[in-house]
Write a structure and sequence with these properties.
With 110 residues, this protein is α+β, with helices and mostly antiparallel strands. 59% of the residues lie in helices and 13% in strands. It has three helices and four strands; from the N terminus they run E-E-E-E-H-H-H.
């Protein structure tokens, strides 16, 4: 079974991004793998490495939630429940965006 690919390539490693991978959108609309972002951020912190690690850990949590919600949405039959899951998934996307901006602020990543 092949993995479904997104239409994006990572702005850091230039490899295809797949839907089952953790990825995020940078403020300049570049899409990056979380693992690439994490490696680059930890290697190039502007401030406290502990702060960078804390925000990366939080971002990873939100990105994992997004993947989990998307998987559950595809399995749920009840339309009302599906709408609830879609709403909380959108909240996780918003949180991931906020945290990604903080990674950009705390580290030289692009």
């Amino acid at each position: 079974m092949s993995r479904p690919a997104t239409k994006w390539t990572c702005g850091i490693c230039n490899q295809t991004i797949y839907w089952d991978e953790l990825f995020t959108f940078m403020s300049n609309r570049t899409v990056v793998h979380f693992t690439c972002l994490k490696s680059k951020a930890l290697a190039n912190p502007k401030g406290s490495p502990e702060d960078v690690q804390a925000v990366l850990d939080s971002l990873e949590t939100e990105l994992k939630k997004i993947v989990e919600y998307k998987a559950k949405i595809n399995k749920v039959k009840d339309e009302e429940l599906k709408k609830v899951l879609e709403a909380v998934e959108k909240d996780a996307e918003k949180n991931a965006g906020i945290l990604t901006r903080h990674v950009e602020r705390l580290a030289n990543v692009l």
